[in-house]
Amino acid sequence: MASRRVLTVIGAMLVTVALSAACSRGGTPVAEETTAQSTQTSAAETTTTTTTTAPSDDDQVRETVMAFQQAYNTQNWDTYLELMCPSWRAQYTGPVMDMTKKTRIDQGLTTMTVNSVQIVGDEATATVDAQNEMLGRKTLDLKLVREDGWRMCMPSGVR
């Protein structure tokens, strides 16, 4: 029971990191374009070649951790489960999922900061500082695997 509670707290912390990152990206508002501006822009875009690079594995791992935290904090349980590796997701049925939902309500929001990411092949470890409204601050090592994108797996440790 204690290990499920730790996993739930870790999940909550992951989700909060995602939420705080999503809210802090910021940006400058852009004025609405007129039809003339739009036509000029379209003409310029047809002659300009742009190259975009795919996000690095490090960036993808960080995005997954943040999305997991956001799903937990917003109680978007479908996304929360989708972001788990299949072996971990298989454990989140019935009473385990009910306990996760109850823990989220009882303990409130979790915020996280990803300190570092280590990737070896198709496995990654994200070291995060997590803070929960009721449980305080912890440093966690979160395991991820690359299975149709990066997926959260069992956390490996709490410091």
Structure, described:
With 159 residues, this protein is of the alpha+beta class. It has one domain (2-23, 56-158): Nuclear Transport Factor 2, Chain: A. The chain contains 6 helices and 5 strands; from the N terminus they run ααααααβββββ. The protein starts with a helix and ends with a strand. Residues 1-39 have low confidence and may be disordered.
Task: Please tag this protein with its features.
alpha+beta; disordered N terminus; 6 helices; 5-stranded antiparallel sheet; Nuclear Transport Factor 2, Chain: A; 159 residues; single chain; 23% strand
Strand content: 15-25%
How would you sum up the global shape? globular
Gyration radius, in Å: 19 Å
N/C terminus separation: 19 Å
CATH architecture: Roll
Might you state the CATH topology name?
Nuclear Transport Factor 2, Chain: A
Biggest sheet layout: 5 strands, antiparallel
Would you identify the regions where 5 or more consecutive residues have pLDDT less than 50?
Answer: 1-39
Oligomer state of the chains in this structure: single chain
Nearest-integer average pLDDT: 77
